[in-house]
Structures are given as C-alpha cells and as structure tokens.
Amino acid sequence: MTQPPRDDVPYGPDVSYGSPPGPDAPDAPDLSMVHLPPDAQQRLSRMRQGKQLFTSDLSVNEFLLVREAGFRPVGLVLGSSVYHVGLQMARWGRNMEMDRLTQAMYHARELAMTRMEAEAHELGADGIVGVRLDIDFKEFGNDLAEFIAVGTAVVGDEPPPTGGTWRNARGLPFTSDLSGQDFWTLVQAGYAPLGMVMGTCVYHIAHRGPFAALQTMGTNVEIEQYTEALYDARELAMSRMQAEAEALHAEGIVGVQLLSLPHRWGGHTTEFFAIGTAVRPLREDHVIAKPGLVLPLTDGGRW
User: Fold this and answer.
1) Domain with 215 in it
2) 202-211, 226-235, 286-295: which is most confident
3) Which 3 state secondary structure label does DSSP give 188?
4) What CATH code is carried by the domain that includes residue 177?
5) N or C: less crowded end of the chain, CB within 10 Å?
C-alpha cells in the first residue's frame, strides 16, 4: 500500500473465499511478477522440485500442532526491504500526525510482506504461519532501516470445509502471526486466518512550555495534552487496522497487539502500531473438545 487506509474508502461486495478475486475485490499484487533475488529463486526452486525437505522456524511443539491442524510446512519464507525513511518537520507545541513518516512505515512493511508472500506463492503454499515483522535501523546510513517479514509457508492437507481454498478473498496466501498453539486452537474452533492486518500512526506529541510545567509541579493532575495525543494516535492505528480487516471481509481480528515504537525520532515522535490476524468462520459452531483429567497408573514414577 502507498497510502494509509481511510475510513471513508468504500469496499466492494462480498467475495467468496477461494474464488478468483472479482473487479470489486481489493487490489492484490500479482505475486508471480514480484522480483525476488536470484539466490532466493534458486533456493525456492530446489525446494519445490525436491518435495521432501522443508525448513521452518516453528518450535517442535508448534510444528506438531500445525501438522495436527491439517497443514504441512513446505519452507521458511522471508521478505526484506531496506528503506530510507524521510524527514518531516513538526510544530514544537502542536499534537499532530507525521503523515509522511506514517506512509513510509506502511510502504516499507508492505514491500517486505509482499516479497514474503511471493516466496510462499513460489512454493505453492496456502498460507504462512508464525509470521514475525522486525525493523532494524542500520548504522551504515542515516535513517536507513531494514524491514523484515519471515514465517513458515504451509499447505493444507484438505480443502476447507466451506469449499474453495485456504487462500483469502484477494487470492493471496493467508498470513498469521499466531503461535502454532494458537493456530491449532483457532482451526479446531472452526475459524481460519485470512491475513495479518495492521495500522500505524507516527505521531508528534507536543512539548509543554516551562510555565505549564511549573503549574503542575508536585501535583497529581492529568496532563490532558499528552492524554489527547496518545489516545488519538492509538485510535488512528486501530481504525486503520480495522479497515484492512474489513477489506478482507473478516469476521474479526484476534491476537491484537498495540505497540509504541520510538525508533530514532526523539522522545516526542513515536510510531503507534496495531497488528493482528483477521479471521473468518469455517462452520457455525465454534466448540472444541474440553481437556480431560489424566491420572498416571504408576507408583512414584516406577513401573
């Protein structure tokens, strides 16, 4: 994406899951046209031809639960974007969103995510589980940061009970930042992930003048100027995350995290980042078997 989602942007009618995206579906990149480094193409080609070896950053427990949920890992996939984050001037005493920086953080993450999805597409994957999004500011250039997306591509053993495929309404592999344990629970309860959705807002928090600081010295009092800034920034991030979920025709978002990331912009400019996994129902009932009590029939651990 090149623009943060806006609440007033209309979305098209429902798209059936697993069907080709229609003209009213949200724009989706053509993953076959995404440029990948030659070394990545060679690695993916060998894995696709071998059909045996897979790589994964899932723990042993996560791997076994993902298999139990009916998905087979096919390979570790990643996407990267080294991005120069531009400059924007802020007014010293004014709360305001730094829209140019917000746009940069959106675009850089989207580049990394799209390249990760393209690698999964090359492996014929239905989705990507255990996705991590990291930012690493580099020392070899001013305002240079590497945005990294990494996860494990998986293929479903069977199509979903609703028919179609496990891919989302945009025809892309689903993405999820849930742990393997949470992913298993989600599928067992009759839900499927659609994709990771996120919202960001880089916000400048106004400075207080010396007279205002003296007035509140030694007293218990709310600083409404700061409350308003932090409240507004988080609400903007949340609303943009929700707009992405609506574009995927999701029923809800699970595993939401609200993060405050100062990066390198000083104490009064912070990125407020909301991220979660959008989900859709696979069946009407959402009941999983309750765990039962198991008593060992051994005497003090000896047979």
Assistant:
1) 38-45+53-281
2) 226-235
3) helix
4) 3.30.110.70
5) C
